[in-house]
Here is the input.
Amino acid sequence: MVQHFDLILKGGIALTPAGRVRADIGVANGRIKAIGDLGVATGTEIVDATHLTILPGLIDTQVHFREPGLDHKEDLETGTRGAALGGITAIFEMPNTKPTTTSAAAFNDKLDRARGRTWVDHAFFIGAAAENADKLAELEQLPGCAGIKVFMGSSTGSLLVADDSTLGRVLGHGRRRVAIHAEDEPRLIERRPIAEAAGHPGAHPEWRDVETALKATTRAVRLAEATGRRVHILHVTTEEEMEFLADHKDLITVETTPQHLTLAAPECYDRLGTYAQMNPPIRDARHRDALWRAVASGVVDVLGSDHAPHTREEKDRPYPDSPSGMTGVQTLVPLMLDHVHAGRLTLERLVDLLASGPARIYNIAGKGRIAVGYDADFTLVDLNAARTISNDQIASRSGWTPFDGMKVTGWPMATIIRGRIVMYDGQLFGPPTGQPVRFTDTIPGA
Here is the structure.
């Protein structure tokens, strides 16, 4: 009997748990049903993947899509549009919107807004604050919740957990992963005059210096150990933090970003000005080299884009009144494929950082690997495609990228989510049908 599938990916090189294999992949009812030589099987849709590499659907676990309240910069439709165009199949969105995502009502409002408007699958973080610290165990169980987000240092928005007493309460209520922006708020306040006196974003890594990051990271780890809570340190930027975190991997997982692996001070601030400004800051090559060593040694568990758009008008304000943040969800995959091409990491390590790593850390159900029974999420890439990143490609409402004009080798050619082709060769195929991501530690009875 001839097998029939909803979708067949024909003849691509797939990165599977067994390694790189040239195989057909058969999809039915949104899940992977067969991997191998499918012979005379038929498919409602057949994609010739002969010259492409098939990766598990890549996941960006840190984005800021600004809806509700800051929609002039970005919204869920434009943000996920960029994700799909960039080969990303699922995103985790942060809570520093207006209002902040600190209650069940605000969280469910985001889910409602996402329905029928998101191009990729999605999950949302609950923001931690003194007012909801004792309710987090309940809030983190909401369907579609990625976990808890803590801002130890002020960045964009009003969420802040600056003191150890409140942070201890946050970590003591609940059991799911807590993602932390680790900068020490008292030190940021104390050192802001450095930025004001300089009046140039080149002072950003001096204002928000190594000690500001290391002090907060050390505090977060000590409190995690005291409470036994699993903690994820976001966008780690310093050599000193990586050395410290390498000794605390039992409870602690680590993220860095493509921006911090690609850009370096002072050149980026001289060239881009406030468009290179983000928190924690881009630092000098010593730290960038240390981040790459941490990627190579396995200290880094995941990459996140920290996509945090602002309009040109906002970014053009005089420093330090200019907001921190840059776009990234659409350029994450091209940048990292270019690093693969340059030999800085293997394609297998990239899959670990953007698929299996996120699934492992956040207990994502049914995603993160090419295996029978898993969601049919795929990122198809052309490892030899030479392209130039440009502002006019960027779907974000902000309309710019710090990597405008950068030539890269390697490009996402197709985004497939639960067996549905959402993007192929730069063209989106609607309507948007993104669904909430499921997590094994919130599925009843799991």
Notes: Residues 57-362 form a domain with the TIM Barrel fold (CATH 3.20.20.140). The longest helix spans residues 210-227. The mean pLDDT is 97. The CA atoms of residues 30 and 418 lie 4 Å apart.
